[in-house]
Amino acid sequence: MSAGPGGVAPLVAHAGRAAAEVPCPKPKVAPPANRPPRPVPPPDDPVGSAIGGDALATHGLVIPPGVKSPPAVTATTWMVADLDTGEVLGGCGPHVYQTPASVQKTLLAATVIDKLDPDQRITVTRGDLDIEPGSSAVGLVVGGKYPISTLWLGLMLNSGNDAANALARLAGGGGTDGVAKTVGEMNALAKRIGAWQTHAVTPSGLDGKGQFTSAYDLALIARVCFANADFRRYVLTRSAQMPAQPQLKKGGFQFQNENKLIFNYEGALGGKTGFTTVARHSYVGAAERNGRRLVVTLLGAEARPMRGYQQGAALLDWGFALPKDESVGKLVSPQEVAPEPSPTQKPAGAPPAATQPTRGEPPKVLTVAAAASVALLLGGAPLLLLLTQRRRRRPTARAR
């Protein structure tokens, strides 16, 4: 086997690539004639594609052996995972680069929701309304004064790009460079949590050159979001009131949650919808049944024959029908992707890096010598241990 980028090919066993990739189930519908070409994604990264388990490094279908095939959906890529245990139940090209649209607002929330006081009031500037003409806005007005909590509702319910700009500006210090600073923090958070396919250019998810994410990354981001009580409350809110601005002679109005999952799905916990003509439909949704919380993420979908949230609901149904011990991979923790401390930083008496595998099982981490060799190859990449992760049951790709 020839070495790939960084010379790491012999170290990464891509289960999904060992044999011909199995196509993901798709409905027999023609794509829209006016669909624009997909942006050219970065080349596949053998290290990033192995985050969470080598079986996830596939552009095709990966599900546990012997389980029922997932529903046919138009989403180009998708994934279902357990929010609490982190087990990945299945997916279609989980690490494939896609454009995010407004599900990127979940990354904004994950980055700054704890930094901003929900009771603080913000004055909207003209720059906050600098959004693509015709794109979604919650209706903020220049000079209007709004509680931060109202802006979060406008962001999550109505997908307000104006609210995204205002929140990002404030979180970045409130100046003209505030949005850029927050976008930088969004990208830094993505790297810290293992979302290596994610690169934000805008805080709202409006299309930008070089802006990508993946179904796996969105699940990592969703896990951060759903750990926050304010986020959970916002995304389950069915409607909210935009306050009047009497000093500007502007009346108040009501706006609705665009995520229909919370109205139509048993145990829905909320989520986020997204759409641009380039990204197509994207969706993040979560639900709880019998004490089990699952999240679904999907990208590059068309609205027919099912809308994005309906495709999410169908995939959630499939996930809830699987036994709890089924898994094809894992949502990594920030600790698992953090750089290893240097030997001089390790406390005295620290346990050795290597552990002995159970008989009949492959090693779960590298030996010290192997880790050193890989470190030379990867230039100190922080995913050395992740490359050798194996699942309890070897997943197999299944045909429809």
Give a brief description.
This protein is an alpha+beta fold and 400 residues long. The chain has helices at 15-18, 105-112, 148-156, 161-171, 178-193, 215-226, 229-235, 261-264, 308-320, 334-337, 368-378; strands at 61-62, 77-82, 87-92, 121-123, 145-147, 239-242, 253-256, 268-276, 280-289, 292-301, 329-330.
Description:
Residues 343-358 have a biased composition (Low complexity). It holds the Pfam family Peptidase_S11. Keywords: Carboxypeptidase, Cell shape, Cell wall biogenesis/degradation, Hydrolase, Membrane, Peptidoglycan synthesis, Protease, Signal, Transmembrane, Transmembrane helix. Residues 24-45 have a biased composition (Pro residues). Residues 19-53, 331-364 are annotated as: Disordered. The chain contains eleven helices and eleven strands. By secondary structure, it is α+β, with helices and mostly antiparallel strands. 25% of the residues lie in helices and 15% in strands. A hairpin with a 2-residue loop joins strand 9 (280-289) and strand 10. Strands 1, 2, 3, 8, 9, 10 and 11 form a seven-stranded antiparallel sheet that branches. The radius of gyration is 22 Å and the shape is globular. The chain has helices at residues 15-18, 105-112, 148-156, 161-171, 178-193, 215-226, 229-235, 261-264, 308-320, 334-337, 368-378; strands at residues 61-62, 77-82, 87-92, 121-123, 145-147, 239-242, 253-256, 268-276, 280-289, 292-301, 329-330. Helix 3 (148-156) crosses helix 4.
